[in-house]
Amino acid sequence: xxxxxxxxxxxxxxxxxxxxxxxxxxxxxxxxxxxxxxxxxxxxxxxxxxxxxxxxxxxxxxxxxxxxxxxxxxxxxxxxxxxxxxxxxxxxxxxxxxxxxxxxxxxxxxxxxxxxxxxxxxxxxxxxxxxxxxxxxxxxxxxxxxxxxxxxxxxxxxxxxxxxxxxxxxxxxxxxxxxxxxxxxxxxxxxxxxxxxxxxxxxxxxxxxxxxxxxxxxxxxxxxxxxxxxxxxxxxxxxxx
Length: 241
Description:
This is Sugar fermentation stimulation protein homolog. By secondary structure, the chain is of the alpha+beta class.
């Protein structure tokens, strides 16, 4: 569990340090803790996690202390280029919802209501429907978790093929045509980057859908967060190239 204080997402208990031994079957990660104990943690990230999985990489895990859970630890972050990189895909929706509520994202400020998981499009759910602005249309907001950085100062998405992600972009185009605002917020869980772009070589299909969506008026925003053993802190808006 975690809680917000202004622009900071605080973990209720400090994370534990260790080193990654292996990530396997997508959702399992063996971690050697600094105490010398080796544990298996739940990996809450179904993606490839490109660039983060070298054995020996420093790691942060949450101790769950929950007898109902098969795994008693959850992987939260891995270190790359001396920067903690958040890998838990459960956090971005909460981070961005709170950032909007606190008016930390100027492009989506001035709204009075934030509704999660609203049905729209072709059997899809939008991450956030933002309503109640006195002058602007309701906004359909899709959120993408970002960890990939293949060169200094630059973040990218995706790190693998995401047909679902491309489908979402095409559905957001439909919402723009219906008179709504539509936005994608790339939530970057690392603070060593200043620019963002699409990793076209990782998924050309997503890149084509992105170009179509941008031309149609879908808005693209990228926000970075500083990850630590205590929590995640709002860092800055990135330049979307």
